[in-house]
Amino acid sequence: EVQLVESGGGLVQPGGSLRLSCAASGFTFSNYAMSWVRQVPGKGLEWVSRISSSSGGTLYAGSVKGRFTISRDNAKNTLYLQMNSLKPEDTAVYYCAKSPYKYMSDDYDYWGQGTQVTVSS
To answer: How far apart are the first and last CA of the chain?
Structure first.
C-alpha cells in the first residue's frame, strides 16, 4: 500500500523558515518523480515544486523560486521542502504527491494527507 506522510508544518513568523518532510512507503521511491502541492482554504490546488526520480532535475513555481528548495533522500525514502523567507501568502496545507513516472510531470497518482503551514505574526 502506497503511503505518503507529511510532517514539519506549523506556525512561523514572516521571514522565518520551515522544513517539510514526506516519508514514503509501499513503492520504490527512487523510481518516481515527486512534487509538493499546496492548497489555501477556499482556493484550488497550486503546484509548488517537483523533483525527478534521481534529483537530476527540479522545478519551482514562480511564487516560491529562490525561497524554497526541494530535495530527496532516496536511501531514506523521504522528500523534503526547505522553505525560507516565508510570507503570509505561503499559508496553506502542503501535500506531497507521487508521479506515475521517473520524469517530472503534472500527473499525480498518490497524495499524502497534508501538513498545515501558517505564516503569521
So the answer is: 40
